[in-house]
Amino acid sequence: MMTTVKPLMARFHKMLMALLLVLASVPALAQQSPDQLIRSSIDDLMGMIDGRESYFMSHPDELKQMVDESLRGVADFRYIGASVMGRYFNNATPAQRSRFVDVFKQTLLDTYAKGLITFEYSEIRVLDQQSAARYEDQDSVDMEIVGTDGAVYPVSYTLRQSNGQWKVVNVIVNGINLGLTFRNQFDQAMRQYNRDYDAVINSWAPELAVDELERGGA
After folding, report:
1. Contacts for 155 with CB less than 8 Å, ≥ 6 apart
2. Digit-coded pLDDT (tens) for 97-145
3. pLDDT tens-digit map of 74-92
4. What pLDDT band is residue 207 in, cutting at 50, 70 and 90?
């Protein structure tokens, strides 16, 4: 199973750049439904980077800062971090929990900001037909990203309502649950480092993801 996931993760890295840009353009408005929240971002998305690829290639820190500021009110990184730590969360100290959230966030920003302008897509569309929410405080929004080669990638955002605001807590790409994938990676690291939280946090690895991104998808 692991031999299947890694090539697939490499294959979809560039497409995930577009997903992050979707999040970066989502306005955090409590009065909007999750569907409206994601849908309203699409027009802004298309204009954020079009024609500015060369500029951002020369100013990567500016791009990273833009993404960071945009994501603050959209993705619930504390919830995501706790989910990724999984069964190890309760035994971690508050300082270790906080530090892992910060490291996890930075690895995503570093990885995706580098490749954000490299993915070539022709259309990003939120599906008209959405599944009914199973819980009042949790919902999902289904969409598709169409590559310039015509390939269609189904995407599902999981959103959770917290303090009156909907925030993204997970993404499923072409059937690959990214939250679960990261959790498995954290579990594997804890086994490798004999449950040394600090060692796992210090070695949490954007390197592999960056290398896969630079090599391109298989």
Report:
1. 19, 142, 143, 144, 145, 171, 172, 173, 174
2. 999 999 998 887 776 666 556 667 777 788 887 887 778 888 888 988 8
3. 788 999 999 999 999 999 9
4. very low
Q: Is residue 24 classed exposed, middle or buried when 0-12, 13-18 and 19+ CB atoms within 10 A define those classes? A: buried
Q: What is the pTM of this model?
A: 0.76
Provide the residue type at 213 as one letter: L
- Comparing C-alpha atoms, which of 76, 69, 39, 73 is closest to residue 159? 76
**Angstrom distance (rounded) from CA 22 to CA 16:** 10
In one letter, which amino acid is 116? L
- Both structure tokens of 205: 């690895």
Looking up tokens 């991104």 gives 213
Exposed, middle or buried by CB within 10 Å (0-12, 13-18, 19+), for 43? exposed
